[in-house]
Amino acid sequence: MKPRYDDSKCTEPESLRKVFIGGLDYRTTDESLQAFFEQWGEIVDVVVMKDPITKRSRGFGFITYSEAKMVDDAMSNRPHNIDGRVVETKRAVPRDVRLYLVFCI
Question: Residue 23 is part of which domain span?
């Protein structure tokens, strides 16, 4: 289990500091994802999403920076190539906002 970082010192909402990364190679780990993205700033959380039964990567993940500016820096350096694959990198949209957009608009 990876250590959780204390992001209580972060003043900006998590939604502004979180990045979605899609198209990950199945070999990509939390550690390799963090190692790649920390070149743009301090990461307070990182997760490669896994199937709960097989424990195999679902091919996407999230990172959360300590500051929103770091997200901007990472986005301005696209495309990103991680473990031999060009991945899709974009600002994460909170689940409640996605549901609102689908059902209320």
Answer: 14-93
